[in-house]
């Protein structure tokens, strides 16, 4: 039996995986926010990671209505649809959140609450920043919220304690080594979970 032809045929395991689509959510819209510095830092690290495509969703630009209703007006519906399509297209999420009064920002909760199926059976990771706690109290609350939405939250996070002192005026991290290493560990987990759950959704659509 001639097995030469069969051995040269491509198989599913040898084909390159499609890039993982990661929606990066910037969760603060406060005046003078530090979030864009964190977003630029994270997106630069994600760009170094093979197999990832990022899409930055900024709650300040999304400007979603705070009143949750089944019948939003035309302008509100258009803004919602633009965000909903991007969340639905994502295979995974990374939430960038500060800590305000021991919790996460209201505009981030608004974005979360406007959506349901878009989150399901996908991983969510966190990059937090703040004062002495580094935003970790906000992250712990977000884990509970996202568990209700049928997501898998990634164990490892990146947190910036006293964040303003860690970056120079040009937005460069003064001591990048530890944070870069933490970002790589987290992104490795995002890719693992994101790829596994994407394959699972293709094989069997998730039913909440």
Automatic annotation (TrEMBL):
<feature type="domain" description="NADPH-dependent FMN reductase-like">
    <location>
        <begin position="21"/>
        <end position="163"/>
    </location>
</feature>
<dbReference type="GO" id="GO:0005829">
    <property type="term" value="C:cytosol"/>
</dbReference>
<dbReference type="InterPro" id="IPR050712">
    <property type="entry name" value="NAD(P)H-dep_reductase"/>
</dbReference>
<dbReference type="GO" id="GO:0010181">
    <property type="term" value="F:FMN binding"/>
</dbReference>
<protein>
    <submittedName>
        <fullName>NAD(P)H-dependent oxidoreductase</fullName>
    </submittedName>
</protein>
<dbReference type="InterPro" id="IPR029039">
    <property type="entry name" value="Flavoprotein-like_sf"/>
</dbReference>
<dbReference type="Pfam" id="PF03358">
    <property type="entry name" value="FMN_red"/>
</dbReference>
<dbReference type="InterPro" id="IPR005025">
    <property type="entry name" value="FMN_Rdtase-like_dom"/>
</dbReference>
<dbReference type="GO" id="GO:0016491">
    <property type="term" value="F:oxidoreductase activity"/>
</dbReference>
């Amino acid at each position: 039996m001639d097995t030469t032809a069969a051995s040269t045929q491509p198989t599913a395991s040898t084909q390159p995986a499609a890039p993982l689509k990661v929606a990066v959510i910037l969760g603060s819209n406060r005046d003078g926010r530090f979030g864009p510095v964190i977003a630029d830092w994270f997106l630069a690290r994600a760009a170094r990671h093979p197999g990832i495509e990022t899409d930055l969703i900024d709650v300040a630009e999304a400007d979603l209505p705070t009143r949750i209703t089944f019948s939003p007006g035309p302008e509100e519906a258009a803004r919602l649809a633009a965000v909903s399509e991007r969340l639905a297209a994502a295979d995974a999420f990374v939430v960038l959140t500060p800590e305000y009064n021991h919790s996460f920002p209201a505009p981030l909760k608004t974005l979360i609450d406007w959506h349901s199926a878009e989150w399901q059976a996908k991983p969510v990771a966190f990059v937090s920043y703040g004062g002495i706690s580094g935003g970790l109290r906000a992250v712990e609350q977000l884990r509970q919220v996202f568990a209700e939405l049928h997501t898998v939250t990634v164990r490892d996070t990146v947190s910036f304690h006293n964040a303003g002192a860690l970056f120079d005026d040009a937005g460069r991290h003064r001591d990048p080594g530890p944070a870069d290493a933490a970002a790589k560990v987290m992104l490795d987990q995002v890719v693992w979970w994101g790829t596994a759950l994407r394959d699972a959704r293709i094989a069997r659509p998730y039913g909440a």
